[in-house]
């Protein structure tokens, strides 16, 4: 009788624990024909979210989507993009993603985060053992590139890479056309791989509609990791510079030192985001949440 009661208690405990946190489902494959989107249900409202490799481990909604879902927020959310500080709301919620229960931090701001969906979601926040994003059918001669990743509250899913002794968080994105980095990361890479800012200033949207000035930097030797190579990146020379200096090539061929940034220097941020200028040859990505391995299917 005692053994039977003990077994019953263990069963009830297991059921209670299972109900406290949703278990991951098996696998999710997002086909190229339908795009990198999932259906989410938040507060009884159906929403379409775009899955991103470089998103923080959360859900970020457009303001109208948050309003339709009746969200009020029980916390504040601050995102800093260079000198621009954007304040929003956040809330920890239970939701459904592709019919599977999940728990996630849901954020929103008064700016749109996605033009083609109701919001964005990190691939790490999806309640599945593995998630595959297919961009196109596999081509001849493609091979698999396996990358061991980590997860950070701000970086999201990233590959830790060393530039000399400096640790760089390398994020991957199928949505961004160009590889980019804030000033400190660009300076650290330039010191190890060689490179300087070219005098061709342009502007790039970083997030939430915020445009920041960028300058191209051609590396003398590409940054290589896991079979991928980054020869060129766009550097946000005014953002998150810390105490670093950046070399700029002058129009007349002279080399000079330029220290760019806000009047009050921001802390250094050692992160780069690799875009489709490098990942364009990759037809698919599969992320395994338990192991943290990101597998890319890429042409040689």
Description:
- The protein has 300 residues and is mainly beta.
- The protein has two domains: 27-134, Acid Proteases (Cathepsin D, subunit A, domain 1), CATH 2.40.70.10; 143-298, Cathepsin D, subunit A, domain 1.
- It has helices at residues 2-20, 63-68, 183-193, 276-279; strands at 25-30, 37-42, 45-52, 59-61, 75-81, 84-97, 100-108, 119-122, 128-134, 143-148, 150-152, 156-163, 166-172, 180-182, 202-207, 210-225, 228-236, 246-249, 255-258, 271-274, 282-288, 293-298.
- The strands form five sheets. The chain has a six-stranded mixed beta barrel.
- A hairpin with a 3-residue loop joins strand 11 (150-152) and strand 12.
- The chain is globular.
- The N and C termini lie far apart (65 Å).
């Amino acid at each position: 009788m005692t053994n039977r009661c003990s077994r019953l208690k263990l069963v009830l405990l297991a059921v209670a624990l299972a109900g406290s946190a949703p278990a991951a489902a098996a696998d999710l494959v997002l086909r190229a024909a339908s795009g990198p989107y999932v259906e989410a249900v938040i507060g009884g409202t159906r929403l379409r979210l775009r899955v991103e490799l470089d998103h923080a481990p959360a859900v970020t909604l457009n303001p109208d989507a948050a309003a339709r879902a009746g969200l009020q927020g029980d916390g504040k959310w601050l995102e800093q993009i260079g000198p621009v500080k954007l304040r929003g709301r956040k809330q920890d919620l239970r939701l459904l993603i592709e019919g599977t229960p999940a728990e996630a931090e849901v954020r929103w701001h008064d700016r749109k985060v996605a033009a083609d969906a109701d919001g964005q979601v990190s691939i790490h926040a999806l309640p599945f053992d593995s998630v595959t994003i297919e961009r196109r059918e596999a081509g001849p001669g493609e091979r698999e590139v396996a990358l061991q990743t980590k997860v950070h509250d701000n970086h999201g899913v990233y590959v830790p890479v060393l530039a000399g002794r400096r640790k760089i968080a390398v994020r991957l994105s199928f949505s961004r056309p160009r590889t980019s980095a804030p000033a400190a990361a660009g300076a650290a890479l330039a010191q190890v791989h060689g490179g300087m800012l070219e005098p061709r200033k342009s502007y790039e949207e970083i997030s939430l509609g915020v445009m920041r000035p960028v300058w191209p930097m051609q590396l003398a030797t590409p940054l290589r990791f896991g079979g991928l190579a980054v020869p060129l990146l766009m550097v946000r020379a005014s953002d998150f510079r810390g105490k670093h200096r950046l070399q700029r090539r002058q129009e007349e061929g002279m080399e000079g030192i330029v220290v760019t940034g806000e009047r009050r220097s921001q802390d250094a941020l050692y992160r780069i985001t690799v875009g489709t200028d490098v990942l364009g040859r990759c037809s698919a990505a599969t992320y395994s949440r338990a192991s943290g391995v990101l597998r890319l299917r890429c042409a040689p």
